[in-house]
Amino acid sequence: MKLMIDLLANLQPVVLIAMLILMYCIENVLPYLNPPANKRKHYGRNFIISLVSFLLNAVLGAVVVMVVELTAQNHWGLLNQFELPPVFGWIIGILLFDFGSFLTHNLQHKVPVLWRFHRIHHSDNHLNVSSSLRFHPVDVIVSQCVYQCIGVMLIGLPITAFVIYGSIAIPLLILQHSNVRFPAKLERIARLIFATPGWHKIHHASEQKDTDSHYGDVFTFWDRIFGTWGKKQPHEIQYGLAEFNEDKHHRVGHLMASPFKKNTSSRY
Ligand SMILES: [Zn+2]
């Protein structure tokens, strides 16, 4: 088992890059929604932001792995207080870790200073594979490092559960943002459990009641329990945010500096 988990962990960056290339190819042959007027510029800008996110994630990922190991060695967290069968511990750990991510994502929308950074991900007027990693570096630090370190320690997340969770969450993140149409039946069945591409796209709608919904990263349970979900179809959605309605607002420099500028947000 340990060998398999090591292999899965080592494969995660390879899977991420392979998925980005695969979905890029599919969405350019068979796009679902209308692509942006200047596709090359859109991909180019998002590519620069994504590269920074990817590298930052790689560095922060090492810190999180260190925390996962320390948690196991020192028996920190909830799950380490009980003698649970391993599989049981992994399942509960994965569910709790996803729930923590759901709560953090709520905070990223509800706490004004966190929203200033998180809204860069929501500012994209066109969703495609390049939107998957369009995050402000500070937003990456909040969700990938601060939350993951705290979540791992509080839950006592076993390394196996951490690796399995990442192996589901990473490909799902790419699928959720890609401009690819998924078979309606598969969407309908899969969203009973997983935050499918059609489910997550509602989170990118410009209307605030939709933006503040569909927070779940991997599972749909939490949004169903808290009533933060709806039934819009991806082709019915207006994507982006009102304050990012001009081309100049999507320049990399503007996106990186905007959280520090005079507030232009319509919500806070
Ligand atoms: Zn969000």
Radius of gyration: 18 Å
- Amino- and carboxy-terminal Cα gap: 48 Å
The helix tally amounts to 11
Ligands in the model, by name, code or SMILES, are: zinc ion
Helices and strands, in order, run as: HHHHHHHHHHH
| Average pLDDT | 95
Low confidence ranges: none
Helix content: 55-70%
Total strands: the figure is 0
The rough form would be described as globular
Main sheet attributes: strand count, strand direction, barrel closure: none
The number of distinct structural domains comes to 1
Protein structure class: mainly alpha
* Portion in beta strands: under 5%
What features would you describe in this structure?
The protein has 268 residues and is mostly helical. It has one domain (2-29, 39-260). It is built from eleven helices and no strands. The protein has helices at 2-29, 39-74, 86-110, 112-122, 137-155, 159-177, 184-190, 197-201, 208-211, 221-226, 252-257. Helix 3 (86-110) packs antiparallel against helix 5 and helix 3 (86-110) crosses helix 6 (159-177). It is globular. The model has no long low-confidence stretch (mean pLDDT 95). The structure holds zinc ion. Residues 105, 108-109, 118, 122, 203 line the site of zinc ion (ZN).
Structure described in brief:
It is found in: Endomembrane system. This protein has one domain (2-29, 39-260).
Please describe the structure with a list of short key phrases separated by commas or semicolons.
about 270 residues, mainly alpha, 11 helices, about 60% helix, binds zinc ion, lipid metabolism, iron ion binding, Sterol desaturase family protein
